[in-house]
Design brief:
It contains 11 helices and 9 strands. The chain has a 7-stranded mixed sheet, with helices on both faces. It has a two-stranded antiparallel sheet with strand order 2-3. It is an alpha+beta fold. Helix 5 crosses helix 10. It is rod-shaped, with a radius of gyration of 44 Å. It has 2 domains: about 90 residues; about 240 residues, BirA Bifunctional Protein, domain 2 (2-Layer Sandwich).
C-alpha cells in the first residue's frame, strides 16, 4: 500500500472517529490521536522529507486534503456538540413559569399591635385623634405637672428608670429636670394641653417603663393607651359612658362594667374599671379569683391642679383621663394568663394570632 493510500485510509478512519465522539472531551481525544504531536497523521507528515522528489508533491497534496478534511470535521462536530450541550444546560436551568411558586412564610402584626390598633379604632369612631409623646421624659412632665408631690412613692428609684451619669451614682440633672423613662403615657396629655386649646379629644398610645420584676401580671416594659378629654360641661357620666362603650366594643355586648373608687394624683375623683369575667360570666371562678370581675384600667376626672400647670381655666373646662394597658386587654381578650408570653417572642405562641 502506497503512502497516498495510507493517508486516505487514515482519513476515513479519523472521520469515523470524529462522528463517533459524543462529548467534547471525547472529540478532543480524537484530535490529539490524529493531529497531536504524536498523532497518526502528524507522524506521516513528518516522514514526507524521506520521499523522492517525484512522490513528494502528490503525497503533500493528499496530506493537506486529509488534514483539512479532518480539521473541518472536527470543527463541525465541535459546534454540534456545543449546541447540544448548550441546549441541555438551558433545558436544565429553565424555569417553568406555569408551576406554582414556593410559598414563603409571611410575617404578621404582633398581637399587642393588633390590640392597640383595635383600641385606636374604637376611640377614633368617637372622634378622638392619636397624639404621641417621647419615651424619654423630664421629671416635670412625668410627675410634677401631673400633680405628684415631691415625696410621692412613684418618684422613688425603686419604681422609676432614671438616666444616670457613667458612674451610675446620681441623676444627670437634679430637681425638676431629671431625665427618666416615662412610667405612663400620661405625660402625653400634658404636652397636648400645653400646645393646644380645648376642646381636646386625644389618645396617646406608646411604651412605658417601670422597675417591676416580670411576672404573670407585671412587666418592666409594657404598652399603655392614655385617653384625654377636655371640654366644657364634661362630667363623670361622660367618662363612664365612654368606657362602657369601649369595653363592649372590645369584649362583646354582654360584658358588664363597674367602677370602683380609687386614687390617682392627677385625677379627682378617680376610679378603677372592672369588667365581668368572660369565663364565668361574673359568677366567680378560678380565673377571676372567685370575684367575677377583672380590673382593666384606671380613670378619673382631670384634677384642677393639672389644668393649672398648662394654663387651662378649671372654672370653664372640665375633663377626664384614662389609662389602658394593652397587655392586660390582650390577655383578657384572648385568655392569656401570663403577660410574659407577649414579650418572650415564642413563635408557637405568636402564630396563634
Amino acid at each position: 500500500m502506497t503512502i497516498g493510500e495510507d493517508l486516505r485510509a487514515l482519513e476515513a478512519e479519523s472521520l469515523t472517529a470524529v462522528e463517533g465522539a459524543t462529548t467534547l472531551d471525547a472529540l478532543e481525544e480524537v484530535r490529539i490521536a490524529y493531529l497531536g504531536k504524536r498523532g497518526s497523521l502528524t507522524a506521516i507528515l513528518r516522514g514526507l522529507g524521506a520521499l523522492s522528489a517525484e512522490e513528494r508533491p502528490e503525497v503533500g497534496r493528499i496530506s493537506n486534503e486529509v488534514r483539512r478534511a479532518l480539521e473541518s470535521a472536527l470543527d463541525r462536530r465541535r459546534e454540534a456538540l456545543e449546541r447540544t450541550a448548550r441546549a441541555s444546560r438551558i433545558a436544565a436551568e429553565a424555569v417553568d413559569v406555569t408551576l406554582p411558586g414556593r410559598a414563603r412564610p409571611l410575617g404578621h402584626q404582633h398581637v399587642l399591635h393588633q390590640v392597640v390598633d383595635e383600641i385606636v379604632e374604637v376611640f377614633s369612631g368617637l372622634g378622638y385623634r392619636v397624639a404621641e409623646g417621647p419615651e424619654v421624659e423630664l421629671d416635670y412632665y412625668n410627675f410634677t405637672a401631673l400633680n405628684h408631690p415631691a415625696d410621692h412613692p412613684a418618684r422613688a428609684l425603686q419604681d422609676t428608670f432614671y438616666a444616670r451619669d457613667l458612674s451610675g451614682d446620681t441623676a444627670v440633672v437634679e430637681g425638676e429636670s431629671d431625665v427618666l423613662l416615662r412610667t405612663h403615657t400620661s405625660p402625653g396629655q400634658v404636652h397636648v394641653m400645653e400646645s393646644e386649646k380645648p376642646p381636646i379629644y386625644v389618645i396617646v398610645p406608646g411604651k412605658v417603663y417601670r422597675r417591676d420584676v416580670a411576672d404573670p401580671s407585671h412587666l418592666p416594659q409594657f404598652t399603655q393607651v392614655e385617653g384625654l378629654v377636655v371640654d366644657e360641661g364634661v362630667t363623670f357620666g361622660d367618662l363612664k359612658g365612654t368606657l362602657e362603650h369601649f369595653v363592649r366594643e372590645m369584649f362583646g355586648p354582654d360584658r358588664r362594667v363597674r367602677l370602683r373608687p380609687h386614687f390617682f394624683p392627677f385625677t379627682e375623683p378617680s376610679a378603677e374599671v372592672d369588667v365581668s369575667c368572660g369565663i364565668c360570666g361574673g359568677e366567680g371562678c378560678r380565673s377571676c379569683g372567685g370575684e367575677g370581675w377583672l380590673e382593666i384600667l384606671g380613670c378619673g376626672m382631670v384634677d384642677p391642679n393639672v389644668f393649672g400647670y398648662v394654663g387651662i381655666d378649671p372654672e370653664r373646662y372640665t375633663g377626664f383621663a384614662f389609662g389602658i394597658g394593652a397587655e392586660r386587654i390582650a390577655g383578657l381578650k384572648y385568655g392569656v394568663p401570663d403577660l410574659r408570653h407577649f414579650i418572650e417572642g415564642d413563635t408557637r405562641f405568636l402564630h396563634q394570632f
